[in-house]
């Protein structure tokens, strides 16, 4: 599919609906270490190179009127990596916030960090807060960076908030359904997850958006994250464009609904 460019935002949004574009895409950005190793470099060289792919993914999402892009940058399990690698990843997160926050703001991108940020260094937490506040009113694209994020953490965190509301008498337990529960997930307010991409060749979720994946289309590619450019993103979206999402219905029901709408 040709990339949509040069039109106004409204036209882009209309076109994306027509072309069956995903509103919310999430990416497990995997393969940095192996990419570096293939080049005879240390793993962290791959993490640094991966920053350019993040820029490319944001560019692609903006050009194609994707409303929400969620990138898995650091999992709750990644703390178990060697100290040196964890420390480089934290430094990189700091650096990228310094260099990109203003540019994202200028480009109408709203930045959100999903995950338990309480484990991060105070300075980093402040920086995250400032970037989130600065970009809070931007409407073109929501860029969610999942950092110290775990899908199970997200569900437990939501359950805890719900339980506290119930115990304080602010919520009736009988009123807790999927819609109510969803209000406490870190992705609250974002469109439903349409497409989950994993680079780096592994076919697993690695504790990413477990609740949100319920009806997401999954796309796996062997491309290593530092090689994932706008073209590679376009291929994933092209694959999504032609899939039939049935949500439990049968194909004929979906086709009839499409004709009628
Ligand atoms: C993904 O790349 C980045 C993070 C998990 C932070 P990896 O570092 O997992 O790279 P591989 O999978 O070892 O190649
Ligand atoms: C998933 O990649 C986490 C991120 C991309 C941030 P991992 O490399 O940590 O996943 P596993 O360990 O191969 O499952
Ligand atoms: Mg990996």
UniProtKB/TrEMBL annotation:
GO MF entry, a single one: transferase activity
Cofactor: Mg(2+)
Keywords, alphabetical: Cell shape, Cell wall biogenesis/degradation, Magnesium, Metal-binding, Peptidoglycan synthesis, Transferase
Note on cofactor: Binds 2 magnesium ions per subunit.
Active site positions: 30, 78
Residues reported to bind Mg(2+): 30, 217
EC class: transferase
EC number: 2.5.1.31
Catalytic activity: 8 isopentenyl diphosphate + (2E,6E)-farnesyl diphosphate = di-trans,octa-cis-undecaprenyl diphosphate + 8 diphosphate
Chain sites annotated for binding substrate: 31-35, 43, 47, 75-77, 79, 81, 198, 204-206
One Pfam family hit: Prenyltransf
Record-linked PROSITE patterns: UPP_SYNTHASE
Similarity section: Belongs to the UPP synthase family.
Subunit details: Homodimer.
Entry function: Catalyzes the sequential condensation of isopentenyl diphosphate (IPP) with (2E,6E)-farnesyl diphosphate (E,E-FPP) to yield (2Z,6Z,10Z,14Z,18Z,22Z,26Z,30Z,34E,38E)-undecaprenyl diphosphate (di-trans,octa-cis-UPP). UPP is the precursor of glycosyl carrier lipid in the biosynthesis of bacterial cell wall polysaccharide components such as peptidoglycan and lipopolysaccharide.
Protein name, as recorded: Ditrans,polycis-undecaprenyl-diphosphate synthase ((2E,6E)-farnesyl-diphosphate specific)
Organism whose genome encodes this protein: Alteromonas gilva
Encoding gene per record: uppS
């Amino acid at each position: 599919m040709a990339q949509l460019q040069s039109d106004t935002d409204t036209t882009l949004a209309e076109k994306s609906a027509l072309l069956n574009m995903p509103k919310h895409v999430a990416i497990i950005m995997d393969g940095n270490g192996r990419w570096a190793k293939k080049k005879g470099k240390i793993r962290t060289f791959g993490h640094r190179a991966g920053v350019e792919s993040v820029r490319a993914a944001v560019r692609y999402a903006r050009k194609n009127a994707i409303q929400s892009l969620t990138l898995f940058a650091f999992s709750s399990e990644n703390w178990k990596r060697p100290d040196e690698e964890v420390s480089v990843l934290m430094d990189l997160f700091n650096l990228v916030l310094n260099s990109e926050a203003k540019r994202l703001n200028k480009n109408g991108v709203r930045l959100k960090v999903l995950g338990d940020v309480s484990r991060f260094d105070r300075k980093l937490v402040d920086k995250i807060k400032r970037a989130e506040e600065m970009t809070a009113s931007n409407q073109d694209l929501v860029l969610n960076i999942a950092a110290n994020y775990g899908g199970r953490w997200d569900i437990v965190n939501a359950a805890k908030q719900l339980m506290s509301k119930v115990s304080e008498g602010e919520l009736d337990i009988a009123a807790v359904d999927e819609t109510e529960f969803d209000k406490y997930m870190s992705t609250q307010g974002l469109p439903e997850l349409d497409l989950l991409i994993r680079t780096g060749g592994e076919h697993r979720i690695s504790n990413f958006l477990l609740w949100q994946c319920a009806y997401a289309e999954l796309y796996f590619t062997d491309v290593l994250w530092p090689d994932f450019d706008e073209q590679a993103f376009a291929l994933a979206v092209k694959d999504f464009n032609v899939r039939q999402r049935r949500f439990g219905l049968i194909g004929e029901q979906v086709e009839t609904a499409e004709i009628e709408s």
